Structures are given as structure tokens and as C-alpha cells.
Amino acid sequence: MDEILVFAQKFPFTEKAKMQLKDSTISIDDIPEVIVRKAALMISRANSKQAYSLEAMNPTNEMLENELMAFPTAKLILSVMQTTRMIEKFCEMIRKKAFHEIIDSAKPKEIAIELANDFKLDYTRIEDGEEFEIALIDYLEILFVDDETKLVNKRVEKGSVFLGLNDFARFLSEKAYKKVFDSLPIDKESVPKDLVKIAKSIDSQLVHIEHKRFDAKLSGKINPALFPPSMQELYQKQLAGKKLGYYERLVLAAFLYQVGMRKQEMLTLFSKSPDFKAHIAQYHINRVFEKELSAPGYKKISEYGIIVSKEEKVFKHPVQYYVSKMRASNRMKNAVKEKEEREKNV
Amino acid sequence: MFEESKEATFMKKHFQKYYLTHKVDSVPDVERREFGYGVFKRKIANRNLAFSGVDGMNRFLCEKTPLFFSYSNSYYSFPDKQPMQNKGWLQSDLIYEFDADEINAVCEKTNGVWVCNKTFGEENAVEEIDNKQWFLDKSLELSKQQLFRLVDFLEEDFGFDLEKIAVNFSGKAGYHLHIRKKEIQKLNKKSRIELVDYITGYGMYYDNIGFELEKALSCPKGNGLWGKRINKGIKEFFKKDSKEIARITKLPSAKLNMLMKNKPEVINGIEKGLLYDVGARTNKEFWKSVIDFVVQTYMVPIDRQTSIDLHKIIRVPNSLHGETGFIAKELSIEKLKEFDPFNDAVVFGEDMIKLFVKHTPKFSLKGKFFGPYENEGIEVPLYCAIYLVGKGVAELR
User: Fold this and answer.
1) What is the tally of structural domains in chain B?
2) Selection from B176, B203, B21, B174 nearest residue B99 by Cα
């Protein structure tokens, strides 16, 4: 696998990614359908505030190139879409993806440095490279979309901001947000007609999805049977009124939020805790919803001491597992329906 | 254009005399700024004015003679165009504003009188009569103290060069600080909010700056300037008497007695990065109340809106204030220490003027005491007459 291509696919807004695209033979007027579909999926995920990543353990170079190309394609489509706040949502998805690509990687420090260098960021590594010093003025350039980046909670001295690796990754992902945000929308005239059509089609589908999602929330259509085993375990323990640890509760709450559980349902679930205090639970649940917290990836979940089954480990994130099981379940249902239809017709 | 009352004409006449002999040259890049002006009893009557240069601006001051004169912190391509989006924003100075009334808003209002318990015990820092605030030396001294505290944030935390910071007295009850550093001028609103939040301690999570208020009970050890400020403040806090500590922390008396007995241990613990254990169930609440209080004491209560507004207009330094007749005097940080607004900002002469005064407390100007007055005819020096007429408490005889 080409390392630069892997980096470019993970961080498609970088200069390295641009260089990779320059070598591409694909013309803007003739973007293959597979790429357009990926771009549409990116937009759809962004709209529903879901994470987007390449769902393949050992991707080929072709798959990586398609992923990479899907990013500028998505930007072209976004530029002519009508759905409100779509650009912000897309940038937010890119920000979160960038953060997780750094933190969940095997070598987060190295990846962060590679990204910082790509941004041409002026920084100094201190404390044996565990801390990063950047100029306050550079820090202030971000848009502070993520509450965790608030300056008042950082060490600021003599015009410098000192960041640990986690905070440095947050800062870089905010830079990614700004870079993509500043580059959008692209001049509408330069968007090929085919993509304009696709943009219109996505716009109308998103309206439809919004309605569906609203209904789903109302009826609480989540399927715990399809939860990944680690989450299933936590969920069952919570239902049984057993005491969960701090991180267990946090991960479960964030996961349930992501799969669409409503606030009141979540409060009812956590009210079964033996040490339940309504105002504290309410506060934490409100924070999950306000901050739109995502459950951490499996790497972090393991670090918290939550047991992750072998079956789950092929995925990076519990929501990925759940989505894939949902899809499989839907496919199965559809196949059964089709079979029944066929049998009727016969 | 201006109100034609005797008092308005009186104010205008003397302001005009002043401007004819004193050129105002305190606004960099005049041609890129939007200006606004005010008339008698109305601070902003009009805005969206522009001048081609310093001479044009001074001509306006001499000919039209507004009683209040403000300029934009922003630089525009077309400063006189309307609406705002047509002006073509280029950049903005960063401005921090303190007003004694803002600072005293932190304190309590009792029986119609502002009482600042923060620095002056039970003494009044500001008096309010018939809805008019009378700022005393003490309240302006408090503004000044806050300004020095702000300068500490700007210099020590943000690393701003003091030479790029211009300070001026507001002309009434506070100070304005203008930062014209090139990199700062391009900052967007969100970044400016972050700076204000930092200075005011807004949105601070104590655990993020090194406090652990439950199990480990620790405080930051040489880690970050806010952390250091809070540590210092905690030590100061425990110099208070037990009654005051009990009021702020609501600590039960048995625990409070134990705490007071162990004061040296509590203070030494801070040096070592440890917080005193007041009891497992009480620790978090107790220490949070202490730190909340300390942050409120150490933060600088700047005017939030002025700091983040990219389209603000603010008093032109070295122009006159129509409510006091004081000059909004430009000052160096060094000179600020000695600056006494009730003396050094008074620009008008000693000619005696006859007035009828409604109701004032005792006040001092240029080292002389005046009042208290109540519905009486008086004869006072011009500078005092302008002060009283500008405040709207006196009529010409």
C-alpha cells in the first residue's frame, strides 16, 4: 500500500492529497460512478452527523484513490446543494474524521506532526516531544467549533499556547475544518452538469431522510439486538440496574446517542443505576446531546478496560459495527420480501 | 443639527474654543475609519461619517463641534457607506473597555446606591442620585487597578508588546485600551471571544487547568498562568476571617473550625500542589466555591461587547466628553499610575459661571471640593460648570 496515498485518503484536504490528485487521470467532466456514489455517501453521512471513513481493512491503491477523489467530488456537489448548513456539516465531519485518524492511529504523534508540517504550521516540540508549543496568533486562527479547544482551558504564556498530543490533534482537526470551510463553495459555474443533477437529487433525498429520521426518533427504532457485543454487555448491565463505571457509562451514553436514542429514553435507562441521581444524570445526558458526543473508537474503548470481542475488532468503531449489522439485517429482510413476492407471483 | 437650549449652546461654545486651539491627532488611518458624533444629552446622534484625513476631522470638530466624538475600531474601504456590509471591512483594532459602572455592576446596589464591597469594604464607590451616577476617586481607582490587571494578561499571557497598546481615559468613568498589533487586527469575532473568555475566565474547566477537586485533591504546580493566579488567590482567600469564608463556601461550622485551625497547612499545601481535605463529601463543593470566588476576583471585567464587536464606535482619544467636559486623555502605561482623572483630565479654565443646581453629592475637581448642592444658585469655575451642565444637573443663570 502506498503510504502517501493512505495519508492523503485519511486527510484529503492536505497538500499531499492535492499532489496525489494532480497525478490522477480522472477528468472532472467524467467522474466514475463509484466515486460519485462515495461522494454522495460522504455528504449523506455529514448530514446525519455520522462518521465517515474507509470501511476496508486492507484497501487497494485503487480503493484509496477512489476515496481520495470522492472528497473534491463531494465539494463540487456541496457547492451547488440547497440543503441548509450542509457546508458546516461537511466540514464538521471532516474535522471529526481528522481527529480520529490522528488519535486512533498506531502512531498518533507522527501522524500529527506530518499533518502539522503539511499545514506549514510553525510549532516547537517540548518536554521530549510530548508537548507542542504554537504561537497564540496561530491558535486563534481556528474557528473554535469544538468546545474542547477553548483557550481559557489551555496553558498560555508569553504569546504561546502549549498543547499535549490530544489537544494538538484537536487543534489540527480544527485547522482542517477551517481549511475546508474556507475553500467552499466552489464557483458554481465550474461544477459539471451531471454533478448539479446529483446535488439536486441528494437535496431531495435528504429532505426525505430528515422526515424518516424524525419518525424513527419518535418511535425509537433502534435495535439493541444488533449492538456490538461490548455495547450489548453494557446495555444489558445497565438495564439490569448493575453499577457501571464512569467510562462505561460515558461510552454507552455516547453510543446510544449516536444510534438515535432519545434523551428521555436515555434518562429512563440510566435511572436504573443503583447510585442514580436525577440532576447529575440529566446534566451528563444533556452534555452528550449538546456536545453531540461520539463514542470513542475500539482502541480507546479497550483502553478504558471495556472488553471488546474478536468479532468487533474488525471494525474501528462500535457504530460501524451496528451500521453494518443493520444493513445486513435490512438486506435479509428485503431478500425475504422479494422471495415472498416471487412466490406469490408464481 | 444640535439641540438649541442655552446649555447646549454653552457646552458647544466652550468645546469649540478648545478644539480651535487643540488639534486631535490620535486616530491612525483616519481615512479608513467610520466616525459618529453625539449632541447634548445624546451620545450618538449620527454615524457613518468619514474624513479624508486628520485635517478634515479637525475641521469638523471646529465647525460642527459635537459634544461626543467616536470612531470605529475597524478599518474599511468605504467607511461612510451603508449598510455595514457595503463598507468593505479590512481589519479591526482590538479594544478593551472598562467603565466604573460596569465594574460596580459586579457589586451590589443597595437603596439606590451602588456599593462596591469588592475593594472598599462597605464604603460607597459610586453614588447614584436621581438616576445619575457620581463616580468617586475610588471607583476610578478601581477601574485603573483592573486596567493594570488586564495589562498583565496582555503582556504575560498573550505576549503583546506594550508599545503597541494605546490607553486613554474614557472621559467619564473608565479607560479604553486599543491594541493595534498587525496580527491582531485580522482576528475574527470568534477569536476575539476566545480572548475575552480567557481574560474573564469564562468557560474555564478547573480540571483542564490542573485542579482535581475530588479524589486526588490537587492544584496545578507551576502549570499555566491562570493556574498560578488561582493558587495565589486561594492563599489570599484564606487570609479572610472565618465568617467571610463561611459565607462564601457555606462550610459547616465544625469543618470550618478545623480548617481555620489548620490554615498554615492549607496554605502550605497549595505550594506543594495539594488541596486540603475538608471531607470526602464536601471537598468538591467547597473547593469549587473557593475557586469560583478566586476566579471572579482575578478575572478582569472588561466590557464584552466592545471587545468582540467588529463594528463598534468608541470615543476618539483626546476628544472631549460631553457629559463631563473631561478630555479622553491618551496615556502611557507608566503615566497611568499617576493619572488622576478628576484633576488631569480637566481642561477648562477658572472663569466663574453662575448656575442653578438641582441635586448633587459632594464631589471634587482639580483638588477643590464642591457641593453637596440641592436646588440652589451657585457660582463655580468654568470646568465645574461644564461638568454640572454636561451631567444635566444644572441650568445656566
Assistant:
1) 3
2) B174
